[in-house]
Amino acid sequence: MEKRILGRTGLEVTAISFGGLPMQRCTLTEAGPVLNAALDAGINFIDTARAYTDSEEKIGLHVSSRRREFYLASKSMARDRAGMARDVDISLDKMKTDYIDLYQIHNVKTRKDFDVVFAPGGALEALKEAKQAGKIGHIGITGHSFELLTEALRTGEFATVQAPFNFVETKAEEALFPLARKENIGIIVMKPLGGGQIDNPDLALRFILEHGVTTAIPGMDEVKHVEENLAALKNFRPLSAAEREEMKKLAAEIGANFCRRCGYCLPCTVGIDIPTMFIFHLQYTRYNMKTAIPGRYAAMPVKASACTECGACEKRCPYDLPIRERLKKVAADLG
Ligand code: SF4
Ligand code: SF4
What we know:
CATH topology of the largest domain: TIM Barrel
Number of helices: 15
Distance between the termini: 46 Å
Oligomer: single chain
Number of domains: 2
Shape: globular
Bound molecules: iron/sulfur cluster
CATH superfamily of the largest domain: NADP-dependent oxidoreductase domain
Largest sheet: 8 strands, parallel
Strand order of the largest sheet: 3-4-5-6-7-8-9-10
């Protein structure tokens, strides 16, 4: 399987790797076959996060015995030194390992976040100490603000950067990747399938593989996702003119302001599973699943109509989506 060097880390990672966010949607038992299928197929880089509820725990449970077969990355939203130091130790414990290859500062969203991370007593200090202590190998950063990520890369502190890139949202190719390539910073592509909005993994991943990035980390929570995603790499061929036209059409249909199912908006104060509401609505409207979706929606313990419009979720959405407005549409169509 094609491997690429992850920038300054020097690690040779598979061009398609394992995104651990959807692991939190599996049961403890279901997660095992998916993780093991990815390793069996040759994937050698797994990315997860403290924020992905029990994703780290599932990795520890199911593949810590195969630790030498893969590089491991996690991340934390802690902004201060004490919080980050604590999270590194929790990650090590949950994933049953004594070493994490890459630890990232997760989703630096605001100027305030940025300033706290880099200030004395900030999260970066803790990661440097963890590296010195041999708990982690390299330090990276993730986010959705290209302005802040660019500023972060210019500090020279990071070996990798993780940002969204797919054929619907291509801004990183101009706003971030040239600097990363120039500085030999490894590029990890999050949301290569637009958080589930792009239902053609072959097209989506071949588009990314054509670009000079190190690895894409599509989220996988079923064994068939491992197979589908790796097929794009194994059967790689340049995109045809007709496929490029199809991508343009799809990108126009999806638009720019769509839910990527990242889950950063959670927890909702009344327990609404916001990303699932949006994916159900998408399947009901765009994919015309008029029979299957109402039943699945009805089984959700808390419906979109329960939203009290407190606004807590919108402050956490990296895309500033008008969640309250959209939930009203979900409630109108699905109840
Ligand atoms: S605005 Fe609605 S969906 Fe968002 S946290 Fe408040 S109750 Fe939950
Ligand atoms: S609403 Fe925003 S924060 Fe929540 S899952 Fe969608 S993109 Fe992520």
